[in-house]
């Protein structure tokens, strides 16, 4: 079913060579202009768009996600590369800040100028479930390159051939656009991934994957002699709360929406709505089951045999729980595939055993949790732990403030309509949340993802000519800057010394 | 000599009570307005200024740093609290970002609104060497409170009575200004510090101290079931490079400047210039020795007996090295005190044994390293590892670009004049650098220190009334916001949907 057999392992000497090339490339990317980096990112996007049909066909062979979804994912991936190009040119991300000297201050204040600077070569782990958008040329790679950091991707074995081919295209496009050799590397193999996180030349890591694997790599990154940031997006159950009024007003629409969301892509999304809280006795779980039956064609091949086996195990564990009913679907899953399952329990049951009932079940299942009153549901949502998203479905005019307070506490994105699958790439997007959904206080999607690969640097009493162009007296690059505490837009006069 | 004998250990139940109070307070600080938090910070500053004479006397008894230095440090500390009040009101730190929906996009883009949100209760470790500015009400505390996070300080035993008294004053002032009970707590004891880092209610830690102690606490923070950010400022040797031209033009001034900087406060600064690169055969080390002799009154009491003993050990190790000459001062230090020592070696020696010769020696010593050419010096500076600062002294017209390139690589702040001791508190300040100088890519000084205690949150398709005021359609708070990718200042029209 899966293509892991064709995955290879990069020899340690090859990893060293890629890391050394990335370090050499960093000297160039560090000194590159915003215009240069923007052109590199756009060249990579153009090359991927040009190779779209070839890549989608390869991806479908390896992932079974289907051409329409994969075609859309390529478009999302290239739009993301172009958005980072725009953001690099806009320049706010540099946080350019100038404080003129103040000889009257006690002690006298020197001239201080601060901006962000790229960290160095970055390791990126491709994800199984987004062969384009969270893989070779996905968000981690795009944001690191935008920041000025060379990237070494560790390809995911679930789409080894696609990773290799995408890497060839991206590397060639970057270098053809003028980026230095070594700015982009690609390696393979489990042991290689471990060596990548521990490699002395690697200054940060981006990872999207399981809690188990991510935690192990996070620990390695922290245990280095020189710990490095490990940006992991690990696990989420994405609670949804439906109020009684919403359910009364539009149960059919909600059931259909949930059915569509949790079965999308065989449920293999980190934003899959895994637990849905509804008023007790509403029959909503049965409606969801009926909606699934009306639209689903049965078992769908999953990304890997391992993911399918883990899903089957998770469903068996839930279905075998004394307080859980199977409402729709067969908990006995077929090897390699995932078939939708709807389960039901109560807030009392999840509060008694959150470890079992809130364990992320990566695949097409959802657990409908019936609540007696909203306070019970909120207590149970607090027990879920950190999630990427949390959703409330209410009616206009309902006081949702107490609900939003709890959802904002446990999640990184709070939705008031729709379903959490689907992560728009835009300036205001944020993809991360309290542990275990992510390992840090940063986002892996949206323009601010660049901040992960930058560190501040200040120059004190520097001659103008010794400063980076971003911090010279004259704002030659036309970027937003903060001068003597005042934020000034390009074209507006800045305070003078 | 020191007052560690009067330090106590907080009982575990008291720590739990402080943490529970901080958690309750967080519900209030999270919902507080910028104006409220600014008034709390200013009230704390006013109360410390009012108690200045009492606090300075207490601090001098415990730290021996002298009334002038300590009086200045109080002023710096209260100015810092007021700067954060200004920054909270200005509002840029929230990164408020609004993307209006785009139904024409494929897939349709929802309405997305993003800002930063406080993490929760924060643990802060007071430093030995800054009893005000990096302790109870120092930068970590000020930035956490500004962000909306309650704080529990673990007082440093080197100034236990001062910590306790400062904490009383700060806690009373905060609550009198309307902050919730529990917004500020104070605990004591080594084991209590460990328990603080591991406490389930604590969401981040700020620490200033030794590499050894900081690494141990960093490891504990990462090994939690739910890892939390540990912002440690640990260790730095702060290299200085003097060009031949600069030395020729102003050797006396440079020798006097260095002598003043490395002996300031008995050399107990994290920004102490520990290694100074000068052209070989220049006799600069002897000049520094003479400058010290001309100004120093001999041994000075150090902060603690432990610090004095570690300094004596470090000096003995350096002085005993085959390639190191003692130029001035007696390497046999008196117990409890520190007397200035000037040592000399070569770039060849430090490159052969960087582990010994670049080990931070916390106290009044500096190692003059003679270089044959600048390239040798730069190679040696690369071997120093991460530092808080790096300094170049050159003459106008010299091409310093190759030097700045290396200094910017190893340090968080690059100086072109003056000496690295002294950290101005301003918008553009940055205090941090590559490992081991700090544990993360954030700063502990300057306005952006707040970012450490905030995480992003996004709201999708939220009704206007359900949004925080910062993100509503009308910019009622008058803060800078980015709308549809365009940064807009208060009072300017924002793009409409």
Automatic annotation (TrEMBL), chains A, B:
GO MF terms here are:
aldehyde dehydrogenase (NADP+) activity
- Source species, please? Agromyces flavus
Domain Aldehyde dehydrogenase as annotated: residue spans:
10-433
Q: Tell whether tRNA processing is among the UniProt keywords.
A: no
Stated EC number for the protein is 1.2.1.4
Q: What is this protein called?
A: NADP-dependent aldehyde dehydrogenase
Q: Which SUPFAM superfamilies match?
A: ALDH-like (SSF53720)
Q: Which InterPro entries match?
A: Ald_DH/histidinol_DH, Ald_DH_C, Ald_DH_N, Aldehyde_DH_dom, Aldehyde_DH_Superfamily, ALDH_KGSADH
Q: Which UniProt keywords apply?
A: Oxidoreductase
CDD domains under this entry? ALDH_KGSADH
């Amino acid at each position: 079913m899966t293509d892991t057999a064709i995955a290879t392992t990069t020899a340690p000497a090859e990893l060293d060579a890629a890391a050394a090339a990335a370090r050499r490339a960093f000297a160039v990317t560090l000194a590159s202009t915003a215009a240069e980096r923007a052109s590199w990112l756009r060249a990579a996007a153009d090359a991927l768009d040009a190779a779209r049909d070839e890549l989608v066909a390869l991806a479908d062979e390896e992932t079974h996600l289907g051409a329409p979804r994969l075609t859309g994912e390529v478009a999302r991936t290239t739009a993301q590369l172009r958005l980072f190009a725009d953001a690099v040119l806009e320049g706010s991300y540099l946080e350019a800040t100038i404080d003129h000297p103040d000889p009257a201050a006690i002690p006298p204040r020197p001239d201080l100028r601060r901006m962000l600077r790229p960290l160095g070569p970055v390791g990126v782990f491709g994800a199984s479930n987004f062969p384009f958008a969270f893989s070779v040329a996905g968000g981690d790679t795009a944001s690191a390159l935008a920041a000025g950091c060379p990237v070494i991707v560790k390809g995911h074995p679930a789409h080894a051939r696609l990773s290799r081919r995408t890497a060839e295209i991206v590397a060639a496009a970057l270098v053809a656009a003028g980026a230095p050799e070594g700015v982009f590397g690609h390696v393979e193999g489990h042991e290689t991934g471990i060596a990548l996180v521990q490699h002395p030349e690697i200054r940060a890591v981006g990872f999207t994957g399981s809690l188990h694997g991510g935690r192990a790599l996070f620990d390695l990154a922290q245990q280095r002699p020189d710990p490095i940031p490990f940006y992991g997006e690990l696990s989420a159950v994405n609670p949804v709360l439906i109020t009684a009024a919403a359910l009364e007003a539009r149960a059919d629409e909600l059931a259909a929406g949930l059915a569509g969301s949790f079965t999308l892509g065989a449920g293999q999304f980190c934003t899959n709505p895994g637990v849905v809280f509804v008023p007790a006795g509403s029959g909503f779980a049965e409606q969801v089951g009926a909606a699934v039956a009306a639209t689903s064609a049965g078992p769908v091949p999953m990304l890997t045999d391992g993911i399918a086996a883990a899903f089957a195990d998770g469903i068996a564990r839930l279905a075998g729980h004394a307080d859980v009913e199977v409402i729709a679907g067969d908990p006995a899953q077929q090897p390699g595939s995932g078939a939708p399952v709807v389960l039901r329990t109560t807030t009392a049951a999840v509060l008694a055993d959150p470890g079992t009932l809130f364990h992320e079940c990566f695949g097409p299942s959802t657990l409908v949790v019936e609540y007696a009153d909203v306070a019970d549901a909120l207590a149970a949502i607090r027990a879920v732990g950190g999630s990427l998203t949390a959703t409330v479905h209410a009616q206009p005019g309902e006081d949702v403030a107490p609900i939003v307070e709890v959802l904002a506490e446990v999640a990184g994105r709070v939705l008031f309509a729709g379903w959490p699958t689907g992560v728009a790439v835009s300036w205001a997007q944020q993809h991360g949340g309290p542990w275990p959904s992510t390992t840090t206080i940063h986002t892996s999607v949206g323009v601010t993802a660049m901040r992960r690969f930058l560190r501040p640097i200040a120059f004190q009493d520097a001659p103008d000519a010794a400063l980076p162009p971003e911090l010279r007296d004259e704002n030659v690059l036309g970027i937003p800057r903060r001068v003597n505490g005042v934020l000034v837009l390009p074209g507006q006069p800045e305070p003078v010394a």
